[in-house]
Amino acid sequence: MDLYSMFCCGRVSDRRERGKKQQTWRVFSLKELHAATNNFNYDNKLGEGGFGSVYWGQLWDGSQVTNMQIAVKRLKNWSNKADLEFAVEVEILARVRHKNLLSLRGYCAEGQERLIVYDYMPNLSLLSHLHGQHSAECLLDWNRRMSIAVGASDGIAYLHHQSTPHIIHRDIKASNVLLDSNFQARVADFGFAKLIPDGATHVTTRVKGTLGYLAPEYAMLGKANESCDVYSFGILLLELASGRKPLEKLSATVKRSITDWALPLVCERKFGELADPKLNGKYVEEELKRLILVALVCANSLPEKRPTMLEVVDLLKGISKEKLAELENLELFKSPQAADYNDGASVAEDSSDFISEEKDFKPEKNEERG
Ligand SMILES: Nc1ncnc2c1ncn2[C@@H]1O[C@H](COP(=O)(O)OP(=O)(O)OP(=O)(O)O)[C@@H](O)[C@H]1O
Ligand SMILES: [Mg+2]
Q: Which regions are flagged for Basic and acidic residues bias (predicted)?
């Protein structure tokens, strides 16, 4: 019996004990996933990220009248030595369930192939609505944006504070916030860095995170903790409110960060100028202000000044009016040159979208476990 059959057998008895909710998770065969994705046809490809390509597919289950749509992530450059480790890590991630997290539906590990199966999210990602293929349709009205902000913060707070083990996402960005059929946020790709096998020297691992979302201390030292996620989430909130990208090209050689653009406007209390023009002025003023203040507090360059994700959830939900008033009176929002914020430096053009391990640092293993 191979490692996966052993693992799979364990799962079946486990699953019976854990009840119906967990039964949706299973091990897939490669043959099944080939059939579901039309042999990983280029036309089925949803996109490509740091770990491989994602394909749309459909499964025909004999017991179901309709087909089920899935998204299959085909990991690249995988080590065939880390079978059990891979299976164990996927199993841990599969247990993490929350209404605002995209949970795993299963995996496949045969030969050199490692694939992860998710539910297909029909409204794709936040990225596609803000800057991509759906941006012209203007489907993100203010209510949807607010509910995406609150939902995503809830999902990340669950990862940080409630899931066992605690999980640091390390790659919060617009393409990792997927939208279900009701435009509810589902945060994807959490805990992915953990799937990188130990000692797999030929696997090109990269420090998680995309430039523009990376907390300065993580970019410099490679030390990830919850507050790095809070920073990235702050950038994401600014992006959601303004429709701007985390880094904007000012000239051939210089880019400006979204925080450097937003902070002076906030200091002058020009919140309306921060709103995405696509909203056509249709937003709730108080909520816009709340979202932007929270965003900038999260994206503080000093990690100790950032709120926790639980605090972010409460702030976004408007639970505490006093706390919000406190935020508004922070020194940070009095002068754009406030000492404890960004150093104001624009980002040089020659930086690549990803910071890779080739650039000399390696994230610590096991650091996201609490
Ligand atoms: N379950 C899904 N349903 C619909 N679209 C998806 C799903 N999973 C991923 N995608 C989309 O497929 C594309 C590729 O995803 P992938 O996660 O590989 O890359 P990424 O999110 O751009 O980067 P990263 O590797 O850092 O996560 C993205 O546009 C993503 O939003
Ligand atoms: Mg992704």
A: 356-370
Neighbours of 5 (CB within 10 A): 10
d(CA 364, CA 362): 6
The two three-digit tokens of residue 307, written as one number: 């709120």
Distance CA 354, CA 204 (A): 13
Distance of CA 359 to the CA centre of its chain: 23
- DSSP 8-state class, residue 21: G
H or E stretch at 291 = helix 285-298
| Separation of alpha carbons 164 and 93, rounded Å | 10
- The domain ranges of the chain are 3-119, 126-356
- pLDDT tier at 313, thresholds 50, 70, 90: very high
Q: Cα(349) to centroid of ligand 2, in Å?
A: 24
Residue nearest to atom 18 of ligand 1 (CA): 49
pLDDT tens for 44-78 read 999 998 888 999 999 986 665 567 899 999 988 66
| Residue identifier of the C-alpha nearest atom 17 of ligand 1 | 49
Ligand located closest to 209 CA: 1
pLDDT tens readout for residues 10-41: 343 343 334 444 457 899 999 999 999 999 99
Residue 290 has pLDDT above 80, yes or no: yes
Q: What is the CATH number of domain 126-356?
A: 1.10.510.10
> 61, 119, 141, 171: which is the annotated catalytic residue?
171
Find residue 54's DSSP bridge partners: 47, 73
**How far apart are the C-alpha atoms of 318 and 322, rounded to whole Å?**
10
Class of domain 3-119: alpha beta
Element (H, E) at 32: helix 30-36
How far is 39 from 246, CA to CA, in rounded Å? 36
pLDDT of residue 223: 79
